[in-house]
Amino acid sequence: MTPEETSKKTDASVIERALALAGLAGISAALFAVGYFDPTRAGFFPVCPLYKTTGLACPGCGLTRGLHALLHGDILTALDYNLLLPGFLLVLGYFVISLFLTFARGRGLAYRQFNQKTIWGFFIFAMIFGVLRNLPFYPFNILYP
């Protein structure tokens, strides 16, 4: 098989390209909503179920408020809401670029780096962060959103 035939087999179909465009539109709409509406004042953003029921902050608590602060240029406030925000944004950015490339050229980025060890490592790190941010003494209490 020639390289052209191989690349044609791996190119996305029209439906996959349309879904990639729909995904980009959805992410853009969500980013616009988070940037335009203040999550601390707007009542339609979801509340963390763990925080609502227990008062404990999960590893993702503060991400929406942090993203809002980041979109308004307030980096320190964004990191104060959730210190893991840069890691989440790196992963989200990778997937957004992959969606764009799927739409534009028919092939997204490779996902080899998101193997089982990487995913479990991030999960374990996030769980440790979640436990540490709920400890009620210094220096861990500054991690609480």
Write up this protein.
With 145 residues, this protein is mostly helical. The protein has one domain (3-143). The protein contains 7 helices and no strands. Helix 2 packs antiparallel against helix 6 and helix 4 (63-71) runs antiparallel to helix 5 (75-81).
How does the SSE layout of this entry go?
Layout: H1 3-10, H2 14-36, H3 49-54, H4 63-71, H5 75-81, H6 85-105, H7 116-132
Helix pairs in contact: 2-4, 2-6, 4-5
Could you tell me the number of beta strands?
0
Q: Determine the fraction of residues in helical runs and give it as a percent range.
A: 55-70%
Mean pLDDT: 89
Distance between the termini: 55 Å
Oligomer: single chain
Number of domains: 1
The largest sheet is: none
Task: Using brief descriptors, characterize the structure shown.
single chain; 145 residues; mainly alpha; 7 helices
Quick recap of the structure?
Helix content is 63%, strand content 0%.
